[in-house]
């Protein structure tokens, strides 16, 4: 069984243990991989701040349409995974715990003042809609890094849908690329289609780097690629592509790192303590 379907089956088994009745992507139609309500797919209800963040997005994450169930109700939703892991720390405002587990900073010296979802940072000089960063840690104004940003992946790298390359518009302004000669060389190979990476959405990561640079400056952000690992050939190939991309980014001085959700969970188990047992038990039962 391929990685994508291994994840789907595990999530369906979790729903069955919980007695959750599943529906299709269009209610009665489509494969039954969606919960009937959003709350059934989340550890805790969304805060007003989180609702607002997703409301500003363009992906119908939390509210369905007459023809489609809300995307976050999917068992395999990466936004649901991100919310289930990070919303807990947003709501209890223990930013240092989760920031340290991600490798961004020390727990006792964390500059984060907020956690938000669906961050958008426009690339200066490029008239395109910016991609959404899944999770953003906003830091104090005087901090060395203006933000810590996370691109989160669940099933996407292993989906049959694949991913796109870079539109020509991204390569027309040479000023944008001046700080990033290595990424520029790579970007030229991704326009208009990505024939280099099978699993990693490299074009999306490049756009995140450019957007964060426009918003904070080249040396004032950290970017984390956070992904869900299922051992096997596909995941090994995905990991190789991640390492290839990070190598290119580091040649340009980009503070980009990668972490699996499994590694993040182990970090939290070591540091979070018994007071967070309910949250950790939920994550272990569902994802790990």
Characterization of this structure:
It is built from ten helices and seven strands. The model has no long low-confidence stretch (mean pLDDT 95). The chain has one domain (3-287). The protein has helices at residues 3-18, 48-55, 78-92, 95-101, 174-177, 181-188, 202-216, 233-251, 261-271, 277-287, and strands at residues 22-23, 34-35, 112-120, 132-139, 147-153, 221-227, 256-260. The chain has 288 residues and is α/β, with parallel strands linked by helices.
Strand order of the largest sheet: 3-4-5-6-7
The fraction of residues assigned to DSSP E strands is: 5-15%
Radius of gyration, taken over Cα atoms and rounded to an integer in Å: 19 Å
**Given the C-alpha coordinates, what overall shape results?**
globular
| Sequence of secondary-structure elements | HEEHHHEEEHHHEHEHH
Helical amount among residues, as a percent range? 25-40%
The biggest beta sheet reads: 5 strands, mixed
pLDDT < 50 stretches: none
Give a topology summary.
Blueprint: H1 3-18, E1 22-23, E2 34-35, H2 48-55, H3 78-92, H4 95-101, E3 112-120, E4 132-139, E5 147-153, H5 174-177, H6 181-188, H7 202-216, E6 221-227, H8 233-251, E7 256-260, H9 261-271, H10 277-287
Parallel strand pairs: 5-6, 6-7
Antiparallel strand pairs: 1-2, 3-4, 4-5
Structure, briefly:
Helices cover 40% and strands 14% of the residues. The protein is α/β, with parallel strands linked by helices and 288 residues long.
